[in-house]
Amino acid sequence: MLFTVRLGQGAVVLPRDVKRIHLDFAFRFNDGHFGARKVWRSFLPRLKYHNPAVSMTINRSQDNTGPATLTIFYGAPKDAAPSPSTTRDASTSDLKPFDRTETIDMKNKHESDILSELMDLTKPTPVVATPEDEAELQQLVDERNRGAADRVCNAAYTEQKRQEKALLDQARGTVGPA
Question: Cα angle vertex 123, ends 117, 129, to 5°?
């Protein structure tokens, strides 16, 4: 299961100047919010796994007619004094100005198009599977194929037993007690 997070679409290392990613979309995926939801569910875990220092926040609203945006914040805050994450002081909020921001409108877009725009804007380094990962992935594919073949064999066996039982039940039904 870790393969789905370590490898695949969205498994990239973002440049150091990307400091924060913020998604803003509706709870329900009607009115064009489906792509945004898929980005949140499928790609954001991979991005966070490979970029733990990048703050990733999500704001979900009840308003389906509202915007669905992904905002990328670049550069360090102007007063770049790092603060502990447990501090609740208003001076350490994420609302400090960043060097620049880029916004992607996700409304009515497919998740792969949104990811493509994110990659174009940030110019990340893709994560390449190691030979060990490739071998383990091939082993998983082989196990899935064996499982599929076993399911076919088991289904045929179960169907044969069902037919035999039906024939026996039919024979018992036609030959009644004397």
Answer: 100
Decide: residue 73, CB within 10 A, 0-12 exposed, 13-18 middle, 19+ buried.
Answer: buried
According to DSSP, the residues that pair with 52 across neighbouring strands are none
Distance CA 104, CA 121 (A): 9
Could you report the per-residue pLDDT of 12-71, keeping only the tens digit for each?
Answer: 888 888 888 898 888 777 777 777 788 888 888 888 888 898 888 888 888 778 888 888
Q: What number of other Cβ atoms are within 10 A of residue 88's Cβ? A: 6
Q: Chain-centre distance of CA 178, in angstroms? A: 68
Backbone torsions φ then ψ of 100, nearest 5 degrees: -160, 160
- The reported pLDDT for the residue numbered 162 is 93
> Which among 75, 61, 71 is positioned nearest to 30, based on CA atoms?
61
Q: How much is the pTM?
A: 0.64
Helix (H) or strand (E) holding 61: strand 55-61
